[in-house]
Amino acid sequence: MNPTDLSTHDAFLDACIAAIGDAHVLRTPADMAGYLTDWRKRYTGQARAVLRPGTTEEVAAIVRIAGAHDVALVPQGGNTGLSGGATPDVSGTQAVLSLARLRAVRAIDPANNTITVEAGCVLADVQRAAREGNRLFPLSLAAEGSCTIGGNLATNAGGTAVLCYGTTRELCLGLEVVTPSGEIWNGLRGLRKDNTGYDLRDLFIGAEGTLGIITAAVMKLYPLPAAQMTALAAVESPHAALKLLDIAQRAAGPLLTGFELMSDFCLELVGRHFPEQRYPFSQRYPQVVLLELSDNESEQHARDLFEGLMQTAFDEGVAHDAVVAQNLTESRAFWNLREHIPLAQAEEGLNIKHDIAVPISRIGHFIDETGALIAQAAPGARMVVFGHLGDGNLHYNVQTPEGGDPRAFLKTYQSALNRIVYDNVIAHQGTISAEHGIGQLKVGDNARVKSPVELSLMRALKHALDPHGRMNPGKVIDLG
Amino acid sequence: MNPTDLSTHDAFLDACIAAIGDAHVLRTPADMAGYLTDWRKRYTGQARAVLRPGTTEEVAAIVRIAGAHDVALVPQGGNTGLSGGATPDVSGTQAVLSLARLRAVRAIDPANNTITVEAGCVLADVQRAAREGNRLFPLSLAAEGSCTIGGNLATNAGGTAVLCYGTTRELCLGLEVVTPSGEIWNGLRGLRKDNTGYDLRDLFIGAEGTLGIITAAVMKLYPLPAAQMTALAAVESPHAALKLLDIAQRAAGPLLTGFELMSDFCLELVGRHFPEQRYPFSQRYPQVVLLELSDNESEQHARDLFEGLMQTAFDEGVAHDAVVAQNLTESRAFWNLREHIPLAQAEEGLNIKHDIAVPISRIGHFIDETGALIAQAAPGARMVVFGHLGDGNLHYNVQTPEGGDPRAFLKTYQSALNRIVYDNVIAHQGTISAEHGIGQLKVGDNARVKSPVELSLMRALKHALDPHGRMNPGKVIDLG
C-alpha cells in the first residue's frame, strides 16, 4: 500500500512526517499492531499513529507538534511492562511514541564507572557494553533481552540484584528528558554527588512517561566481580528464611547480591510443567532460598564464605539442607528453577498476581495472616509465593483450587482476593506495587490506598509539569 | 523579663503561643541570637520570632498560622549548614522554625534494617541508637555532634562514607513532611521497593526546606562490620591516586568505604598549626590518600585485603609508600589528619572555599588545568586541595600567598577565582555544589551555570508546591 493513500489531510500526521520522515510514522493496522497490546495481553488500545523518532531532537519536535495539535502521547520502550503503562487507550486519538530507534551507547567511562545510553537501548545491550568495558551493569530481569533502559527508568524496574545494587533509580546518575513543552533538559551528569537544586532526575524516574519523556541516561557501573556463586538452602518457613537472610547479611554484607524465596508449591508447579528442571534436594522441604554472592576476591573466597554462613545456619537450626553450585551450569540451573515459576504458573492456568512489598521484618506475619484470610475466603485456593525476599518484595500469587475452573474462580474471587491482599499489605505498611509500577492496571487501587495528601501532591506535580495532560494520560494517577 | 511584656498584640505571635506554648516562641534578641547567624558566620539575619514546636502536629499548626498571617518560615536544624540555608534574611519579617525539639527515635527495626527518627535528632544520636540495635547508620560528617538528621536530609548531606553507602538521599527510605499548606504527608515507609507514583521523597530531600518541612524519616541501617581498617598511601599525583582507587575498588569492591585525597600542602598546614598531628611518613610525598575498608569477616581479612591491594599498587608503580593503622588509636590519628585540614586552613587565615565535583575520570585534568589558570590569575595563591576523591568531590580551596594579606587578597581575587573554578567545573560536566547545597550562598552562581530549562522546571515545582512562596524564600532558587 502506498503510504500516501492513508493520508486524510491530517495536519498532525503531516507535521510528524515532515519532522521524522514518512517511514517512521506508522499508521496501518498491521504496522501498528505490535505497539497496541501490552505484554500480558490485558490491554489492547488504538492509536492515531505510532511515531518512531530517531534522535532526541526529533522526540522534542514530535512533542511540540503534539502540543500544537493537542494530541496525547504514549511513550513506549520494549513494550514488556506488566501494568499496561505503555498501551494507548481505545479512543484512537492518542499517538504511541516509540523510543526504539534511540539505541546508541553514547559513551562509556570506565574510570568514572558510568555509561551514557539512549532510552531505546535494550537492557541486555547495556549489560554487554558494560562488560566490554570490563565493568558490570547490575540491573537484571527476565525481560532483559527486549526491555529498554528507558522503560526500566520510566517504571523504576527492580529485578534480581536490588539487594546490593538498588533499583533502576539507584543505578541512575543523570537523565536527558524532553519536557511536556517540547524542550530538552540535559541533565546527563555522571556525578555521585550534586546538590544544586531540586531532584528532577528522580521525579522523572518512575513517572511512567506522565511528566516527560526520558531520551537518555547516565547509569552507574561497577567493577566486574571475580566470582559469582549461587546456592540453594532448604528452610522450614518464611520466618526461617528471614533468619537465614540475617545470617547471610552479617557474614557477607554487601557481597550478598541475591536472596530469593520459593515455596515448595512453586517448585512443585515447576516440576509438574517443566520436568527437566530437577528438584535439587533428595527430599521435599517447605521453602527453598536461592542465595547469590558476588565476590571481588576469588571463587574460593566466595565458596568459603558460603560454607561458613551455611554452617552457622545449620548450627542455629535455621536451615535443613543446602547445595552450592559447583559451576556455571549448576548456577544457571538454580536460577532456572526460580525463573520457571511464572512460566509454570501460566501453564497451570489463569491466576491472580500481586507484586507487593512489606517491611522485611513483617513478611513472615504477612504471609501467615494473608494466607489464612485467603483460605477462608476462597477455600482450596493455592498460594504461589516467591520473590525477592531480601528486598521485602513478594510475588504473592493465587492459583485456582486443584482441578477447578480458572475463569469461574477468577470471576468469583479476583476482586475480593485483591482487596484482602492490598488491605493487608497496607495494614503492614507495605506497597501494592513494589516493582511493576501503576500503569493503567492499578490506578484505581492506588487511589484507594494512598492518602488524600499524597494524591494531591502528585496531582500538583502533574499539573505543574504537564498542564495540558498530554503525557501518557490515564496512567499512574487519575486526575479526577 | 515577663514574656507578656513583649507582646505587641501581634496576632501571628499570639496564635503561635496558643499553638505551641509561650516558652517555645522565642522573641528576645538574646533568646534568638543563636538562630540568626550561620555556622560559618557569613550571614546574620533578623527574625520576628524563633518557633520551637514539639510535635509534627505543632509544626503543621505553625505552618497554617504562618499561612493565615502571610509569614515566611525558615526551617532550621542544628544550624551547621555551610551555605546559609537556615538563616533568615535581614527584614525581620520571617520566622525561624526550629525542629530541635522533635528529637525522638520513634522506632528501630533491626530485622528490616531501618530506624525511624524525628527531624531534630542529632546525627550522633541516630548513629548511637543504631549501634544499640547492633546496626550501623553510616552517615558521618564533621558536624555529627550537633547537626540534625532533618538538616542532613534537607541538604542531602554527604560526608566520609558516600563511596559505599551513598548520600543522605540514598540512606532514606521514607519521610514525614508538613506541606506548605500545613498538611501532614505520612510517607514513613520502610520499603526497599515501592513504585506507586511520583517520588515525593526525593523531591523534599535536598530542597532545603523550600518545598515543605521534613519532620521525620525512615533511614536505612546496615549490619555492623566486623572490622574497620584505615591506611595511608603516598602517591605522586591525583592521577596516581585515581589509579590506586581503581586498584582498591577492583580488589575490595563494596568493602572500600572511604577514599580521601590530601595534597602535601594540606598536611603541611596541619603540621604548621597542629604540630601534635604527626606526619605519617619518613619523607614528604606530593599526595597522601586515606583508605578505609569495612569488613564483614574479620580484622585479619581486612588486613590481608589491604596488603594485597597495596602490593598491586607497588608492583604497578602507583604508590610510593603505605602505612596501615594497627589499632583504633592509629586509625583515629589518620582520620584526624584529614579532619584537621579545614581547621588548619582557618588558622592560616581567610580563604576561598569550593565544594565541587566532577566525573572521577576528569579529576586529574581538572586539578591540573584549574591550578594553572589560578596560578596565572593570582600569582602565589596556594591551593588547598583535599576531599572525597572516591566520590569525585573535592574541597578545592585557595589560600592567600605566603605572607600576604588575606582580606586584600580576597577582595581582589575572590570573585575572579570563583568564576575560574566554576567555569572549569562546568566545562568538565561537574557541579558547583557537591554536598553543601545552595542555601543563599550560591543562588546567583547556580542561576548562572544552570540551563534555562532546568531553572524553569525547578521554578514550576516551587510554584506548584509553595504557590505563596512562604517556605524558606530566597534559598536554592531565585524566583526572579
From TrEMBL, chains A, B:
Belongs to the FAD-binding oxidoreductase/transferase type 4 family. GO terms for biological process: respiratory electron transport chain. Coiled coil: none annotated. It comes from the Bacteria. One of its GO terms (molecular function) is catalytic activity. Its cofactor is FAD. Residues 43-224 form the FAD-binding PCMH-type domain. Keywords: FAD, Flavoprotein. This is FAD-binding oxidoreductase.
